[in-house]
């Protein structure tokens, strides 16, 4: 067990737990946007040391969340997974304590009742399955896996397209096995998972991307998914993301989201934000910054 991988929040009556699979990975900011640079990042030294190094290198984490609402134990995204070959070396051939950390946090895999994938990129679906022998089988045998129909259909179409350039191995080993097991329910992008947990559409990064809203006893939090990846996007909101399917739509989605939460009591929990992973969006001149929480 890696204690530093586990963090907890309380939103009204809702418990939220974070499990980190890869912590504070360092990459050039150009990995996120071809238009970023260390010089641009270092205009915003509030990002250091949590979200970048002093010399302007990006720090980013790969993690998931479990939400307890009433009798439901909901896994939000499932990280990368062990025993995989992926397009990026950082995602390949992992052998980490993810399931041990999950159990240590109070949520063994058998206790999960729902799995919601905000979208179907490889670092958000990996632990949908686990390798047993030479097969990948569902990790959460007592859960229903919730996929957006529009998101799923887009990936199926890409997989069938001979001109597709996206790596599809995660669809084969992390999505198809839960489909074949009959564990998938298709949901709308505004689905209500419990009285306290709902989804809302945040398209652009992928066709059917959603984010998660927690609202309980007057307290509110948002789990972003990949609607945004890094707090630098608050400070420099006009730059495109290299990994967005529809860059212009994703830009509009992010800007609308910032305007909806700025200077409010809504806690933003960033799916790829390093420790402390959460904060409040506040105005900073013409743009924004993250006030840590």
How would you explain this protein's 3D organization?
The protein is an alpha/beta fold and 293 residues long. The chain has a single domain, classed as Metallo-beta-lactamase, Chain A (4-Layer Sandwich). The protein is 18% helix and 31% strand. The chain contains 6 helices and 15 strands. Strands 1-2-3-4-5-8-9 form a 7-stranded mixed β-sheet. A 6-stranded mixed β-sheet has the order 10-11-12-13-14-15. The longest helix has 15 residues.
Order of helices and strands: EEHEEHEEEEHHEEEEHHEEE
Q: Low-confidence spans: pLDDT under 50, at least 5 residues?
A: none
Averaged pLDDT, please? Answer: 97
Span from first to last CA?
25 Å
Radius of gyration, CA atoms, in whole angstroms: 18 Å
Query: Roughly what percent helix?
Result: 10-25%
- Any idea of the CATH topology? Metallo-beta-lactamase, Chain A
Alpha-beta classification: alpha/beta
Summarize the helices and strands and which ones pair or pack.
Blueprint: E1 6-11, E2 14-27, H1 38-41, E3 58-69, E4 72-76, H2 98-104, E5 114-116, E6 129-132, E7 135-138, E8 144-148, H3 149-160, H4 169-180, E9 184-187, E10 197-201, E11 210-216, E12 219-223, H5 232-235, H6 247-261, E13 267-269, E14 278-284, E15 287-292
Parallel strand pairs: 4-5, 5-8, 8-9, 12-13
Antiparallel strand pairs: 1-2, 2-3, 3-4, 6-7, 10-11, 11-12, 13-14, 14-15
């Amino acid at each position: 067990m890696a204690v530093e991988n586990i963090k907890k929040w309380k939103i009204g009556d809702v418990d939220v737990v974070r499990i980190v699979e890869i912590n504070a990975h360092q990459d050039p900011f150009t990995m996120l946007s071809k238009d970023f640079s260390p010089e641009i990042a270092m205009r915003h030294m509030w990002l250091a040391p949590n979200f970048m190094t002093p010399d302007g290198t990006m720090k980013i984490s790969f993690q998931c969340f479990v939400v307890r609402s009433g009798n439901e134990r909901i896994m939000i995204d499932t990280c990368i997974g062990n025993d995989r070959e992926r397009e990026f070396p950082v995602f390949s051939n992992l052998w980490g304590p993810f399931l041990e950390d999950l159990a240590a946090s109070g949520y063994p895999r058998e206790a999960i009742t729902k799995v919601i994938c905000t979208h179907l990129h490889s670092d958000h679906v990996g632990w949908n399955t686990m390798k047993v022998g030479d097969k990948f089988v569902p990790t959460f045998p007592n859960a229903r896996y919730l996929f957006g129909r529009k998101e799923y259909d887009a990936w199926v179409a890409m997989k069938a397209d001979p001109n597709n350039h996206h790596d599809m191995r995660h669809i084969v080993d992390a999505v198809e096995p839960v489909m074949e097991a009959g564990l998938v329910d298709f949901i709308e992008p505004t689905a209500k998972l419990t009285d306290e947990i709902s989804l809302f559409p945040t398209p652009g990064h992928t066709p059917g991307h959603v984010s998660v809203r927690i609202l309980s006893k007057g307290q509110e939090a948002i789990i972003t998914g990949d609607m945004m990846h890094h707090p630098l996007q608050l400070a420099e909101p006009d730059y495109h993301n290299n990994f967005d399917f529809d860059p212009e739509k994703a830009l509009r989605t992010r800007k609308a989201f910032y305007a909806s939460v700025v200077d409010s009591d809504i806690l933003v929990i960033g799916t790829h934000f390093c420790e402390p992973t959460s904060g409040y969006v506040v105005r900073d001149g013409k743009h924004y910054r993250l006030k840590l929480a």
